[in-house]
Amino acid sequence: MKPFASHFFFPLLLLQFSLLILQNDSSYLIYGEALSKSILFFEGQRSGFLPNDQRMNWRGNSGLGDGSSANVDLTGGYYDAGDNVKYGFPMAFTTTMLAWSVIEFGEMMPPPELRNALVAIRWSTDYLLKTVSQPNRIYVQVGDPIKDHNCWERPEDMDTDRTVYVVDAPSPASDVAGETAAALAAAAIAFGPSDPGYSRTLLTTATRVFEYADRYRGAYSDNADIRTGACPFYCDFDGYQDELLWGAAWLRRASDNENYLSYIQNNAKTFGADDNINEFGWDNKHAGLNVLVSKEVLGGNVYGLESYRASAESFMCTLIPDGSSSSHIAYSPGGLIFRPGGSNLQHSTAISFLMLVYAKYLERVPDSVINCGNISVGPAYLRGMAKRQVDYILGENPMGMSYMVGYSNRYPQRIHHRGSSIPSVWNHPQPVRCKEGTVYYNSSSPNPNPLIGAIVGGPEEDDEFGDDRADSSKSEPTTYINAPFVGVLAYFAANPNPS
Known about the structure:
Layout: H1 11-23, H2 31-44, E1 86-87, H3 88-105, H4 111-131, E2 137-142, H5 145-149, E3 164-168, H6 174-191, H7 196-215, H8 224-230, H9 241-255, H10 258-266, H11 286-297, H12 306-318, E4 330-331, E5 337-338, H13 345-362, E6 370-372, E7 375-377, H14 379-393, H15 418-421, H16 438-441, H17 472-475, H18 479-494
Antiparallel strand pairs: 1-2, 2-3, 4-5, 6-7
Helix pairs in contact: 2-4, 2-18, 3-4, 3-6, 3-18, 4-6, 6-7, 6-9, 7-9, 9-10, 9-11, 11-12, 11-13, 13-14, 13-18
């Protein structure tokens, strides 16, 4: 991910955008249905031995030998997108966001969906625990991406190298280890009420993994052996310092340990927490970090963290077209948050989540608002902004298309996803080898296996979408697009027309 582009808004666009927020009535949108499907999606991304209650029933077992080349069990976890590689860095971020969704909005979920969300988290945390089971070692990836990307085959048929990528002390992996610590700590909070024993295991492991991250500082992709596998797909482009603060902030919240409070207080300036980096995603945690830590400030008695709140509110102001910030996040003509690059909807879903969470935190202080130049922004405004993003993704856009597969009558049919695009192992039992799947990749027919709940990369800057399997930046789903959207949909399912 790269820094946000700077854009200014013309008065007409501002007027149209404001009217969309204030006048939009999307009561016809069924947020509860979208919530159920957004969680179901993760079953389609599972690696390993599938359970009897697997609902995405066109999938089969896969990756059952993962880790065997290194004499370790690395089965399980998630494929990050439409390929068959397991990348630890984005998987850990996905896990953190699923857990954060449950922490903030789980009480708004119907009990069956809360259970399904916890199952989705545990499918990942069980795997992450395996990756850090050995002291001073972290397994960061399974699968050779170059060989994998040169094939178009179902995960059940994989015959490419399942190369294991590992970092041993004193080689650095602060980013992956820091994010893994955050994921396990956040999950410890999520599982606290229902499974305290598992919660304790997660927290104990998170503490140990964070020690590795902090002691051996540096980016995992700086290791030559890792760079060939992680780059250019999931290199650390933006530095590892944010993951150290992010991991410490989650450990602080999970444990109430004052040492982690001191860590995020003392390292804020050194690690760039007050640089107002307006970005949040699998690589750059700054905006999310600032929102997370702001909870300690708003309505509390914790001092020394005011810079985090200031940075969080500066970020919120970049979302407001008539705010005072000189650098605004760009919107498409139809009102979608837009950044150049692939998988654009990852920004819309993650930023919508942050807006809802900050609105929740802001309400801890009566009559508290954010001063954005000419206007003051309160919780209701932030929720209106988030709702506009949600409604756009679910079909209220110039194309009239839902960007969630299986939701509404019009959605992407040709997503960039191997398992979805090739007949299932139940309908086509014969293996589909590496290049044999090319005919399905090139086909203009809809995918035979709908990956229900998958949110694709999304439309162009002009709101156009071609539904082209070959255009992976627009048509490929990812776990980290869906993960924050789970929390967002939980909120709007319970509050379809918030004030």
